[in-house]
Structures are given as structure tokens and as C-alpha cells.
Design goal:
Helices cover 77% and strands 0% of the residues. With 302 residues, the protein is an all-alpha fold.
Length: 302
């Protein structure tokens, strides 16, 4: 899949919108978890998003990718990887983690994604090798995230013995997103809507039976949980999947991974404003470092 100029205005606009949408997804998950189990939340958001995108794929395009040639089969292999590593597995890990950590912490953990994409893209994506400028930008941006979190927040627990494992689950979700980004970038040429819809459908098929087996048939939830599920299915899953694949195809996974420097800012903002979570005192200085890191890693001489 060829990529174009990552510095285009449209790519940057999509990147910012995705940061807001995904930043809000952690608040949405917190609300959804008040009425559903973590696996059920993942399954329901995938059901909503896959129904929408598969319908759109058949109404406005040529449906799902074919299964005829060796290239078609390779595309479906990438779709399988995308459905698992970009949807089913990280959704579940984050939901389970958010039972024990704040939405802000879950959002902050997404800043790990660019650091993981960097070496993966270096080895697997042609023309996306590491250089001093990229490394410097990523390190400065990540330093901002470290300040945002603060080392004491990693050591002080709420008393829940599973909280350290919940933190690891959030980091594990970040690892999945990095792998899914590379899988998408390496996929042979395929329609954006078809690929996105197929990935969500595969994730749904894999997640629904697991959720039913471990958590059973969901009961009628409260209003907060319903609103949380609807937001997760419509925006961070359905709409964001199309935008995600579009940006990765046009600008590459390293550029796409920059969204994960925005996500902590929005996640903490939504958590503070709507969920009454505590705002770190170092918020503004961390934000400045993150923006400087973004600028350095993507700055290009004309």
C-alpha cells in the first residue's frame, strides 16, 4: 500500500480527530463497565461497529474482500491479524485493566505504542527506518508522558493486588496496537472500507463466543453503560477504524503512532472533567514536551 506525504493537512486533521475520539474511549469504557463485564464490552462494541461497516461496505462498495487468488488469501491473513491485534485482544485487555486503573492511566499507556512501532517499522516497512531525528522526537515525547504519569504513580497502589497486573494489561494492549499497525501497513492493496469492515467482523466472530462463555448473556444495563457502549461502537471503533486504516496507508505506521502521544492528554482531560479523576500537577509541562516531541519527530526540511 503506497503512502503519500504524511505532513498533509488531511493526515494531521485525521490524527487530531483520532486522538480526541480515542481519548474519549477510556471514559466510554469506564461507563460501559458499570453494567457489563470487560469481555462483553469488547464484544458489544465490535458487534455495533461491524454491523455498520459491513453494511456500508456492501451498500457503497463491493462488500468484503474476495477469497479467490493467493493475494486474496494473504489479504485475509492480514485481516485476521488486524481483527485480533487492533480490535479483540487490546479492547479486552484495556477493559479488564480499567476495572482497577483510572481512565487516564489507561490512556497514558498508549504512549508506549510509538516506541514499539519504531523498531518494528525499521525492520518490516521499507522507507520507514529509524534516524536520529525520529529517535530524539520519540524520546522527548515519551519523557513528557513519564512526567505526566510520575514515577510514584507506578509504585503506589490502591490496595488491589491485581492492580500491577492491570497496568501490564494496558501496556500489553499497546503492544497489540503496535503489531496491528504494522500488519495493516504490510497488507496488499485492498479497499479501505472492505478491509476495515472485514477486520471488525473477524474481531466480532472471535470475541462474541468468548464473552458468552466467560460472562454469559448480558442483562439490561443502566443508562451510563448503554451510552458508553454506543459511544465505543460508533466512534472509537467504527468511525476510527476507517480513519486509522486510511492514515496508515497514506502516511505509514510511524506517523499514525503519533496519535498515541495525544491520547493521554485527552484521556486525562475527559477523566478529570467528566469522571472527577485527579489531574496531575505536571500536566502542562508534560503536554509541552509531548508537542515538542511530535514536532521534532515529524519535522522535515523543505
Amino acid at each position: 500500500m503506497p503512502h503519500t506525504n504524511p505532513h498533509s493537512l488531511l493526515n494531521w486533521a485525521f490524527l487530531i480527530i483520532l486522538g480526541v475520539i480515542w481519548g474519549g474511549s477510556f471514559m466510554g469504557a469506564k461507563l460501559a463497565l458499570t453494567g457489563f463485564g470487560p469481555m462483553t464490552v469488547s464484544a458489544l462494541r465490535l458487534v455495533i461497529a461491524s454491523c455498520l461497516l459491513v453494511s456500508f461496505a456492501y451498500i457503497f462498495r463491493n462488500g468484503l474482500p474476495k477469497w479467490e487468488t493467493p493475494t486474496d488469501k494473504r489479504i485475509w491473513l492480514h485481516i485476521l491479524g488486524m481483527g485480533m491485534f487492533t480490535n479483540a485482544i487490546p479492547f479486552t485487555l484495556l477493559n479488564w485493566g480499567q476495572l482497577r486503573v483510572s481512565s487516564g492511566f489507561a490512556g497514558i499507556s498508549m504512549a508506549v505504542v510509538p516506541l514499539l512501532v519504531l523498531p518494528l517499522a525499521h525492520f518490516f516497512v521499507a522507507g520507514d527506518q529509524m534516524n536520529r531525528k525520529k529517535i530524539l522526537g520519540f524520546l522527548i515525547g515519551f519523557a513528557g508522558v513519564v512526567i505526566l504519569v510520575g514515577p510514584t504513580k507506578f509504585m503506589i497502589t490502591s490496595g488491589d493486588p491485581l492492580e500491577p497486573i492491570a497496568r501490564l494489561a494496558c501496556v500489553g494492549a499497546a503492544c497489540c496496537y503496535a503489531i496491528g499497525s504494522i500488519i495493516t501497513r504490510l497488507c496488499p492493496p485492498v479497499g479501505l472500507l472492505s478491509y476495515s469492515a472485514a477486520g471488525l467482523l473477524v474481531g466480532t466472530i472471535g470475541m462474541v463466543p468468548v464473552a458468552l462463555y466467560f460472562e454469559g448473556v448480558p442483562t439490561i444495563p443502566n443508562t451510563q453503560a448503554t451510552l458508553g457502549i454506543l459511544y465505543l461502537g460508533l466512534f472509537p471503533t467504527a468511525l476510527a477504524t476507517i480513519m486509522l486504516v486510511n492514515v496508515i496507508n497514506k502516511a505509514g505506521p510511524s506517523f499514525m503512532s503519533l496519535v498515541n502521544y495525544q491520547v493521554p492528554i485527552w484521556a486525562i482531560t475527559f477523566g478529570v472533567v467528566f469522571l472527577n479523576e485527579i489531574l496531575p500537577a505536571s500536566f502542562l509541562s508534560a503536554l509541552a514536551l509531548i508537542l515538542v516531541g511530535l514536532g521534532i519527530s515529524q519535522w522535515k526540511r523543505r
